[in-house]
UniProtKB/TrEMBL annotation, chains A, B:
GO terms for molecular function: acyltransferase activity. NCBIfam families: PRK08304.1, spore_V_AD. This is Stage V sporulation protein AD. It comes from Intestinimonas butyriciproducens. InterPro entries: SpoVAD, SpoVAD_sf, Thiolase-like. The lineage of its organism: Bacteria, Bacillati, Bacillota, Clostridia, Eubacteriales. SUPFAM superfamilies: Thiolase-like. It holds the Pfam family SpoVAD.
């Protein structure tokens, strides 16, 4: 057992990496929601000037990265590595966004947990002594996701009550080995948890057991109580998934009063017709890089546990009758280096 | 600049991780090729007892991992992390293989560079002090790849002369922080290189510039000459891509006599009707975990530079007229800890 390891799944960084810059880009619908003031760039037609939805998604990642680098007062050439991923087949949103950057690149696939996965790996890389600067990034686009996972937009398919709405958005974080924070102090890396849910229109229920597993492990590995954090935020379980996580903890005698969810936060449940809330890699990426990190900088929260949740299914696995494997990675972020 | 970094892209491990176990699984065609003696398990109908090609691919990963763990005399529960990926949409071969393992998991997408990407990240994790044991793993399956990227098998599509044959195979490496080697001493992390090749049936030409870029960078970052290595092996450029890399170096006045390619090695070019050779994440994974690492253990080679090459396209990006972004990660493996 190394000194940086707490329990089996949690890493405690010896030199917590500092968040030097963070930025996001979203679409029109997200810009009309309750978090509108926290977004850096809101596009009005969701094309970002491109000729396809996939290219639009790549454009979002490029804009978010450039903006995060600008805020960190760094050029892309400063970056030692970029860690990025998205939901598209073969992760083309990321590859085509990073193609022109000239930076060593690690491609990731963690479904909607990608923002937390990329932050975890970038932090391990910096704390491990392999570089000074890294970027972590993720995106999703409602239109590219709908036609790939569900039906063409023109079909106008009816959505089920448990469905979530894929966020059009991207978020990028620039991390530095030294800086003024906020700091990434811990990461709890998730195992795959699959409780047999087969309904691809009910991702919240499929991912909730993974979120419960990783959160419970984080608390036992670190010895911290949930109340240690000013905010515990999952992303993206939506209203139904969030309720399931609360139920699980309630059965353990724990009342998670400080739990919220990026998929619940990003849309107005009453006015925006999104059923169970937002989803997609871009949801937690945009909420983290806006509402959450802005809030930390403004003094609203000092300690946050950011828990990216992913459903590792594909349309093929669903058609072949498989259940939905879920995963959740938790990242502890603090304004203090000591956690 | 940290002491573990050489130049901009190369990492030199302070405590080189040791390869404690390695194993592979392949299909019938690979088992009839020139490397047949180096495979641990050869399946005769490529189904591995499963009802779909995608499930067969997952079964291969599970078998390769179990066999690699057995050789390392370890249980899955020993592993701190698994790093894995594949070519399928949403990387379901990996997710479903890892679902039952109960091990913290990082999902990767690096196309055919995935074996090198997973080895690099697993080595960074161990050398960074975040654990004692890790697994790195990748797979591909001819039948799942054909129907996803090209045409249904039943269609019997004609293949072009520059085409490569997707390997049905999986390879897994179990890495330990301490051990008797072979050791992972360095890794050069690739940038995306795209020279405008748009022919999805000519991946070798699309990936060759990335291989040249990473190899040149590795030599300049480390100060090593190509002749330092007993063998430099790319995977999977095939015959055409390998020729392009040789040409690039020839123009620099360098004669890479010790270069070979996993895609060239795995099939008999004359007798197996594979055109330019093998491809797929499983190609370099199966060649590394059999022919190459067995050869090192038998004393055939002391120092190898293993260079995974990936083409980061998708059928959608090709249909939208995009060129093919290539990437290459190079991993230096030595029987000596000092490199």
């Amino acid at each position: 057992m190394t000194t940086k390891k707490l329990g089996k799944q949690t890493v405690a960084f010896a030199s917590p990496p500092s968040i030097a810059g963070h930025a996001n880009v979203v679409g029109k619908k997200e810009g009309e929601g309750p978090l509108r003031a926290s977004f850096d760039l809101i596009n009005q037609d969701d094309t970002f000037g491109e000729s396809s939805w996939e290219k639009a998604e790549s454009a979002m990642q490029k804009l978010a990265l450039q903006n995060a680098l600008d805020k960190a007062k760094q050029a892309a050439s400063t970056l030692d590595f970029i860690f990025a991923g998205d939901l598209l087949n073969q992760c083309i949103a990321s590859s085509f966004a990073i193609r022109g950057q000239g930076v060593p690149f690690f491609g990731l696939y963690g479904a909607c947990s990608t923002m937390a996965e990329s932050l975890t790996l970038a932090s391990m890389m910096l704390d491990g002594g392999f570089g000074e600067w890294a970027a972590a990034m993720a995106s999703s686009h409602f239109c590219s996701a709908e036609r790939q996972y569900r039906t063409p937009l023109e079909y106008g398919g009816q959505r089920t009550p448990t469905a979530q709405w894929t966020v059009t958005g991207a978020g990028a974080v620039v991390l530095a080995r030294e800086g003024d924070g906020p700091y990434i102090t811990h990461a709890t890396v998730g195992k795959i948890v699959d409780k047999g849910i087969k309904d691809a229109n009910n991702m919240g229920a499929a991912m909730a057991p993974a979120a419960y597993d990783t959160l419970s492990t984080h608390f036992s590995d670190t010895g911290r109580k949930p109340s240690y954090y000013d905010l515990i935020v999952t992303g993206d379980l939506g209203t139904l998934g969030k309720g399931i996580v609360l139920d699980f903890f309630h059965k353990d005698g724990v009342d998670l009063q400080n739990l919220d969810d990026c998929g619940v936060l990003i849309y107005d449940a009453q006015g925006q017709d999104v059923h169970c809330g937002g989803s997609g890699c871009g949801c937690s990426a945009a909420v983290l890089t806006g509402f959450l990190l802005n809030g930390m900088r403004e003094g609203r929260w000092k300690k946050i546990l950011f828990c990216g949740t992913g459903a590792l299914l594909s349309p093929t696995s669903t058609m072949q009758g498989e259940s939905i494997p879920g995963i959740c990675h938790a990242v502890a972020i603090s304004t203090q280096k000591g956690g």
